Amino acid sequence: MKNTFCIVSTFVLLLLTFYSSSNSIEPPPYTSLSLEGIQATLNENYLFAEERFRQVISSDSQNPAGYFFLGALYQAEMMDYESDFREKEFYSTLETAIKLAQKKIRSVDESPWDYFYLGNSYGYLGVYKARKGSWWSALKNAMEAKSAFKKAVELDSTLYDAYLGLGSYHYWTSYFTKTFAWLPFFTDERERGIEELKTTVEKSIFSRVTALNALIWIYIKEKDYSKAIALADMLQKEYPDGKIFLWASAMACYETYNWEKAIEYYNLVIKKLERNTEEQYYNLIECKYHIAECYFNFGDFSECMQICKEALGYKLDEKTRERQENKLERIEELLEKSLKITGKK
Predict the structure, then answer these.
(1) Which of 76-90, 99-113, 268-282, 311-325 shows the lowest per-residue confidence on average (mean pLDDT)?
(2) Which of 42, 173, 230, 266 is the most exposed place for a label (fewest CB within 10 A)?
């Protein structure tokens, strides 16, 4: 899950949204229904969210909005469960959103929102393809997303939701190419990206939480951990039934060697994961590994051994075991080291 969130930060989880009254552009149709579905997604009430997004589609089957949000929901579910079980529906709904957005763009009813949905749909496809290792295809989608967001802003500079995509693009492309910043055709636009995300937080209709989440992971990358934890804790209070922001706080504490606090956050994640244990073994291994390492690092070898034994005792399917092979090996190493240190081997 940790690595997944880092990838997703490239496009900044465009699903996670919130209404802000400081906007200028007129909200698009079905904003209330969409926001209800989005709020439910943040709290991991996926069935309710899907019902709301399908209602948007039923209300206007030619509007790309419902298809985009539904596709984004499917990706949120797959990321949550570390599974590709909704891949077919994910591709289908986003491809439909792209076709409908392009159709509206070619018509007399062209709207900046059509470019917004087009850009988001391409962005989500890019995230998923990057996660699957198809980097060139993901980059192509990222460029298409950027082009759509840029066009949306050209049509209406007060469509502040589009600055989310632009800010994400400007920061992360600069971050991943910063070693080439000395070359004339590579510029460092990280600060520009951060400012665009802050504008999104202050003025967007849909994307306040998305932009805040983006900033959390940017602060972690920039080693500004106190800001990351403060934002993540604030958002966790707003969406207490979800766990996405707990992952961020746990990682920030882990990176600052605050072992006890990291253990606290990872245990909070585990409590939520255990509601669907059979489908969450990948993430449980992720949490148990970090907790065991934290205990080892501050010298509580008995607890470290206990956590390692719990993690190694899970009955994993072959796919999960293969995907977490590296972490399982490291857990075994922690157990071996702890046994030697305590003289129990």
Answers:
(1) 268-282
(2) 230
Supply 35's token pair: 């926001």
**Paired tokens of 1:** 């899950």
Backbone angles phi, psi at 16, to 5 degrees: -70, 105
Long-range contact pairs involving 338-343 (C-beta distance under 8 Å, separation at least 24): 338/296, 338/301, 338/302, 338/304, 338/305, 338/308, 339/305, 341/301, 342/301, 342/302, 342/305
Chain CA centroid to CA 81, Å: 13
How far apart are the C-alpha atoms of 33 and 274, rounded to whole Å? 30
Domain 2-224: give its CATH architecture.
Answer: Alpha Horseshoe (1.25)
- Measured CA to CA, the distance from residue 93 to residue 114 in angstroms comes to 15
Model confidence, pTM: 0.86
The single residue listed with the structure tokens 């906007």 is 23
What is the average pLDDT score of the chain? 89
Distance CA 162, CA 149 (A): 5
The pLDDT, as a whole number, for residue 186 is 64
DSSP assignment letter at 179: G
Beta bridge partners of 18: 207
CB 286 within 8 A of CB 1: yes
The tokens describing 217, both together, are 């992971």
Per-residue pLDDT at 21:
38
pLDDT, position 7: 38
CATH of 257-345, one of 1.25.40, 3.80.30, 3.40.50, 2.60.40: 1.25.40
Q: What is the rounded CA–CA span in Å between residue 334 and residue 310? A: 13
Alpha-helical (H) ranges within 157-243 are: 162-176, 190-203, 208-221, 225-238
Instruction: Give the pLDDT score at 210.
Output: 84
- The pLDDT tens digits of the residues spanning 267-317 come to 999 999 988 766 689 999 999 999 999 999 999 999 999 999 999 999 999
Chain position carrying tokens 């995300």: 197
Q: How far apart, in Å, are the Cα atoms of 199 and each of 16, 81, 105, 163? A: 16, 32, 26, 7
Q: Distance between CA 117 and CA 96 in Å, rounded?
A: 11
